[in-house]
Amino acid sequence: MKKPKALKRALLIVNPRARRGTGSIASAVKVLEERGIAATEVKVGEGETISNLIRAHRAECDFVIVGGGDGTLNAAAPGLVDTGLPLGVLPLGTANDFARTVGIPADPVKAAELIAAGEPRPIDLGEVNGHFFFNVASIGFSAELASDLTEHAKKRWGKLGYAIMAARILARSRLFTAHLDHDGTTERLRTMQISVGNGRHYGGGMTVEETATADDGKLDFYSLEVDHWWRLLALLPSLRKGTHGRWNDVRAFQTTEVTIRTSRRRAVNTDGELSTYTPAHFRIRPKAISVFAPPKGQPT
């Protein structure tokens, strides 16, 4: 007699504060159950973290499903690295940049179908001062934006909230001095923003580099060394396409490790969350986790 196929066990963690997190994910869970996946939802309690929940339930599941945006994924990264459990993503956030980078559908139901049918593949993570990031870490303009853009604004206005707040911050932004140590060289620069990318997309529509992937074993660095804020308006189409590295006032290169020092301490934004400060030591963590995503090179 043929044995029944064993159920796969998934630990489901949903961020209720994500832009679409308050809506029902019952349809996505139903898809999982129909495909032989038993999803057990656990909630983050007072004083708990997502990563601690993952560590605590590591023996009770075969993989983890996280429902939320890029900030929620960021919070799960340490637990995923520590346990080695594969990650399934239900995109419920404002921008869902990581999902876009690796080809995970924006519709949570279709994302659930991908988890049920797919195989996890290895994905790199960036790391700065011990903090992981999926997409991009930045110093300067974007860090100020992350500081000022509240959860309420993101939930109410979505991507429009980014644009409104960005315009306000841009008008008051000033250049700052930074020193870079990378690949045996030290460079001094004056910049409005420094970004170090692991994935391709970030900031709800920007592209760190047109050819970047989340599994190429490289960090993509760029620095916006513009004289006037209005220059960014001219740069905007290139920033969206990831071709800004061709401009004379943008410094761009690939590396696996870089240290950034500033004269005064500056915040570092990782996947939309302020997590550490300069001096900031960045490095790539190749194949740090595995994610249910379309095979590399498959059209999405």
UniProtKB/TrEMBL annotation:
| GO BP terms | phospholipid biosynthetic process
Cofactor section: Mg(2+)
Q: What is this protein called?
A: Lipid kinase
Which stretches make up the DAGKc domain? 5-131
> Pfam families per the record?
DAGK_cat, YegS_C
- Which GO MF terms does the UniProt record name? ATP binding; kinase activity; metal ion binding
Q: Which PROSITE patterns match?
A: DAGK (PS50146)
InterPro entries, from UniProt? Answer: ATP-NAD_kinase_N, Diacylglycerol/lipid_kinase, Diacylglycerol_kinase_cat_dom, Lipid_Phosphate_FormReg, NAD/diacylglycerol_kinase_sf, YegS/DAGK_C
Q: Its GO CC terms?
A: plasma membrane
Q: Which UniProt keywords apply?
A: ATP-binding, Kinase, Lipid biosynthesis, Lipid metabolism, Magnesium, Metal-binding, Nucleotide-binding, Phospholipid biosynthesis, Phospholipid metabolism, Transferase
Q: Which SMART domains match?
A: DAGKc (SM00046)
